[in-house]
Each structure stands twice: as C-alpha cells, then as structure tokens.
Amino acid sequence: MKTENFAPVTTRNNGFSLVELIIVIAIMAILAAAIAPALIKYIAKSRRASDVETADVILDAVGAAYAEAYSFEGIEAGVDQDANLIDTSKVVSVTVDSEPSYDLEIISTATNNDTFVNSFGPQQHFLTKIRQTLGKEVNGTKEYSSPKFKSNSGNGEPVGFLIGRQVDGNQTVRFEVWLVDSSGNPCYRLQPDCCTAYK
C-alpha cells in the first residue's frame, strides 16, 4: 500500500490591514452622521410630548381642585377664600399663534423642581387643593418635575410650569397650563391647544 505524505497547510492570520480599518471607521462615521440628526429630533419630540402630557395632568388636577374650591366657604391664614377672585396684579396679555391676544391671570408657577405656590391670599385653599390633587405635599417637601425640553423654541427657554386662567373682565373663561421662562413670563401654552411653537 502506497501512502503519500501531505505537507500541513499553514494559514497565516495577520488580522485587519490598516486600510481595512480606515474603511470600516469611515463607514461608521458616515452612518453616525446620517442617524444623529434624526435621533436628536426624536429625543426633542419625545421630551416635548412628555411636557404636554404633564401639562394635561396638571390641567385635570386644576379642574378637580376648582370643583371643590368653588363652593368652599372658609378662612385660610386669616383670609376669606374665593377661587373665583381674580388677582388683577398678575394678569398679563398673551398671544398664541394667530389667535387674538387675551388676558391670562397667572395663578401659580412651579420652577426649579419646586411645588406650585403664590402669594394671593384668597386663592390659597384652591392652590392647596391643586397640590393635594397632584399628590404634592402642602409644605413643599415634594419636588415637582421641571420641563423635559429645555431649549428655546422661539419664545424663551422654559424653566417650569405655570397654571393660569384666561379671563374676560372678572369672569373665568378657561384654565390653561403654560411653560414659564426664567423671568416668570408664560412662554409656551401646552394645554389646552398646544401652541405650534412647541409642537
């Protein structure tokens, strides 16, 4: 019987060449550059949506609190309570999109993760009910969430939420939730009918 001896085949593994690595890195950079803008837009959109949902929760709490405070007859901190009383010193003129300007009473703001507060005596019971409905302690030890989207979309950079009501003379038209800037001014209406600058 005849046997043949085969020489063992040796394979040489040199890894990737420098040119191959550069090509792979270039392809990854191109893909990252193409995906990054879409990812950034998606993150911004989801943060805006989160703020609108938070505003919806706040608006629901305001409605429930007002229903209770509307008929409340009592004194808090030595002041007769009246949820319908307009604090005329906190009425500002606002314009949203193409709507005519209207008067907005600033009932309360919550900035820098603080709870909703104001200094207008007759509204304290109403405000207490808002905080209780939101599950926030009256003494302010529980923090409230700040806006997720912090960029300036044209009307200022938001730092907190604002509870207000559209007023016509001494009459309440509707309650609204806005974002407030660092100067305490309403900058974007979120609920109801979110302004187009924030969408």
Bulk shape = elongated
Structural class: alpha+beta
Main beta sheet: strand number and arrangement? Answer: 5 strands, antiparallel
Spans of at least 5 consecutive residues whose pLDDT stays below 50 are: none
Tell me the number of strands.
7
Tell me roughly what share of residues is in helical segments. Answer: 25-40%
Gyration radius from CA atoms, angstroms: 29 Å
Number of helices: 2
- How would you write the strand order of the largest sheet? 3-4-5-6-7
Give an account of the 3D structure.
The chain is α+β, with helices and mostly antiparallel strands and 199 residues long. The protein is built from two helices and seven strands; from the N terminus they run αββββαβββ. It has a five-stranded antiparallel beta sheet, with helices on one face. A hairpin with a 2-residue loop joins strand 1 (75-76) and strand 2 (79-80). Helix 1 crosses helix 2 (124-134). The longest helix has 52 residues, at 18-69. The radius of gyration is 29 Å and the shape is elongated. The N and C termini lie far apart (86 Å).
